[in-house]
């Protein structure tokens, strides 16, 4: 009896020690079943055994991509929504002949509604830009003409000497002391 | 769909499609492909466009092509009248753009003609070919080699050189 229990304990101990040399897996070992420690039914709450995978950090890359997407979509989505709504609900203009006696406004020469809005509220009309450019050219032309005239006038005044420029002031003749001149050969 | 261009302004030549004389029982792959394209691309796109235009309603806005007044050219300007120079320069630039578009239209006609006629295009579209040669020669003699900084003044000088060369040859 004692020898039987000793054998049982030794068999159980060897079974525990080397689990690969187990010819009888689920059957009773001698007189009682032995728990299979390596084949227990484990139930995870996820997709399998969770592994600790060792790899270099992707925190900075993922943070960069996240921030990139965030900042691009922050204004990208409103702009895309605006453009979609304008194209669907307002729609582009149609080409038409200019009616008799009608002068179209400067924004009515564009097709897309957003371009028309920009031309109407933000930009000056091309006619005004044309006139502004011509005004600048006129001012510069007047300046150039005046500069040339000034050079011409300088030349004349230097030559003839009868103008207000290039006059050299002489002394007042009342300040001249004539007293040494009345007794020469002193 | 937006309106097509005025057909009387750019008349298409009469169609020269030959009568189909099918001698095989095999299906025509070009027909199959065109039908496929129609049902997979053309029809959905057209119906989508119809839906969108239904949403937009009938209050359509219009846009026009601008008509510019003619002003005096560079030859009619006094010397030193920079305002006149500016107006002549702007007019010349608009005319340059118009001439470029004219050349493009003529090119497109020749290209369409060649596509239609196939290998015998040198014979069949001689009118388009002659028109294209004339227009491109004229364009080259007037605007060619002026470069990116072309101006009405450089064009005028080029014309002067041309007239001097003609006078010398004569």
How would you characterize the overall build of this protein?
- Helices cover 52% and strands 1% of the residues of chain A.
- Chain A contains 5 helices and 1 strand.
- The longest helix of chain A is centred in the last third of the chain and has 35 residues, at 126-160.
- Chain A is elongated.
- Chain B contains 5 helices and 1 strand.
- In chain B, α2 runs antiparallel to α4 (126-143).
- Chain A binds chain B through residues 88-91, 93-98, 104, 108-111, 113, 116, 130, 133-134, 137-138, 140-141, and chain B through 2-3, 52-53, 55-56, 60-67, 80, 82-83, 86-87, 90.
- Chain A: It is a single-pass membrane protein.
- Chain A: Complex I is composed of 45 different subunits.
Topology at a glance:
The complex is a heterodimer of chains A (186) and B (170).
Chain A: H1 2-17, H2 59-90, E1 94-95, H3 113-121, H4 126-160, H5 179-182
Chain B: H1 29-56, E1 62-63, H2 82-117, H3 121-124, H4 126-143, H5 152-169
Task: Considering the chains and any ligands shown, give keywords for the structure.
heterodimer, A: 186 residues, mainly alpha, B: 170 residues, 5 helices, transmembrane helix (chain A), coiled coil (chain A)
Shape call of chain B = flat
Number of discrete helical segments of chain B: 5
In quaternary terms, these chains amount to: heterodimer
**Beta-strand share of residues of chain B:** under 5%
Number of strands of chain A: 1
Unreliable stretches of chain B (pLDDT < 50, length at least 5) are none
Question: What would the average pLDDT of chain B be, to the nearest integer?
Answer: 90
* Radius of gyration of chain B, CA atoms, in whole angstroms: 25 Å
CA-based gyration radius of chain A: 53 Å
Measure the end-to-end span of chain B. 56 Å
What percentage of residues of chain A falls in helices of 4 or more residues? 40-55%
Structural class of chain A: mainly alpha
Shape annotation of chain A: elongated
Largest sheet of chain A: none
Query: Order of helices and strands of chain B, N to C?
Result: HEHHHH
- Helix share bin of chain B: 55-70%
Strand content of chain A: under 5%
Chain pair with largest interface: A-B, 24 and 20 residues
Terminal residue distance of chain A? 172 Å
């Amino acid at each position: 009896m004692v020898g039987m229990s000793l054998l049982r304990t030794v068999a159980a101990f060897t079974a525990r020690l080397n689990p690969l040399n187990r010819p009888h897996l689920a059957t009773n070992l001698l007189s009682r079943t032995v728990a299979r420690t390596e084949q227990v039914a484990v139930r995870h709450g996820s997709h399998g055994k969770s592994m600790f995978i060792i790899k270099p950090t992707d925190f900075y890359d993922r943070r960069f991509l996240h921030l990139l997407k965030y900042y691009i979509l922050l204004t990208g989505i409103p702009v895309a929504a605006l453009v979609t709504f304008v194209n669907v609900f307002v729609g582009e203009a149609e080409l038409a002949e200019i009616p008799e006696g009608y002068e179209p406004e400067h924004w009515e020469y564009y097709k897309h509604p957003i371009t028309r809005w920009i031309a109407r509220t933000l930009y000056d009309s091309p006619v005004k830009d044309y006139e502004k450019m011509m005004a600048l050219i006129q001012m510069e032309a007047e300046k150039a003409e005046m500069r040339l005239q000034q050079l011409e006038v300088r030349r004349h005044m230097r030559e003839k000497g009868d103008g207000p420029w290039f006059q050299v002031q002489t002394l007042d003749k009342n300040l001249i002391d004539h007293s040494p001149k009345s007794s020469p050969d002193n | 769909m937006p309106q097509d261009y005025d057909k009387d302004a750019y008349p298409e030549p009469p169609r020269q499609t030959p009568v189909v004389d099918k001698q095989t029982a095999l299906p025509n792959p070009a027909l199959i492909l065109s039908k496929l394209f129609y049902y997979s691309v053309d029809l959905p796109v057209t119906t989508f466009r119809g839906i969108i235009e239904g949403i937009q309603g009938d209050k359509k806005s219009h846009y026009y092509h601008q008509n510019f007044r003619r002003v005096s050219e560079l030859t009619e300007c006094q010397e030193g009248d920079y305002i006149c120079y500016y107006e002549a320069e702007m007019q010349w630039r608009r005319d340059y753009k118009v001439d470029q578009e004219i050349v493009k239209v003529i090119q497109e006609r020749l290209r369409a003609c060649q596509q239609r006629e196939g290998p015998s295009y040198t014979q069949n579209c001689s009118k388009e070919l002659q028109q294209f040669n004339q227009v491109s020669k004229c364009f080259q003699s007037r605007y060619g080699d002026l470069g990116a900084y072309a101006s009405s003044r450089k064009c005028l000088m080029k014309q002067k050189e041309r007239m001097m060369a003609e006078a010398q040859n004569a």
